[in-house]
Amino acid sequence: MMFNWETFEPEEYGRIEEPRFVDLTERSYLTAEGDAAEHTDDANFLRLASAAAQVAKTISGGPDNDIPVSGFKAYVPYPVQAVWTAKDGGGEHFKIWIKQPLFIDEKAFAAAMTKTNFDNFDEDELHFEHLAEGIEIQTINQGPVTLDAPALKRLTDAIKDNGYERVHDNQHREVYIDGLPLDNDKVVLVRLEINSMGKLLPGVVHN
């Protein structure tokens, strides 16, 4: 059976409005970063998100795409996610992450890059990194995430009510579980990194 992140990791990617906690340890990711003036409608963001997703899809083909992967198992590529940081003076900086299964390594990434058309991006704009999300609180948002999005208010209220601390006041993570580009019908997971302040996190998911 093909591994599908939405089926096999429902606690991490669940479409649940009630705020929940995830503690996501170091994994491998395809990454790209840049600046955007129009959030997820920004052409630069969409260009790099598409490029990263293209490479991730090539890697997911494994041996069928002549990608050398030891212990390969068929899987659905993970969704694009992005960390958004508000910039002084306007606009945002984004960093795109696409999680990779544990059996995917730098050699698979390098092989996939040799099979990728670079017409719309430069080779050095994409990277393979080992990163950890840390402890986050998450909920869902319907459509693009704005500053006054109900999801952000829901999370900030939960942080305040439970005595936690938000780690970065100007930063949040979006996981595009229904894909890009966004419209008002697509669901986005929204996550804020928190300091639990030594308090228990009920139902926290460790991965």
UniProtKB/TrEMBL annotation:
It comes from the Bacteria. This is GyrI-like small molecule binding domain-containing protein.
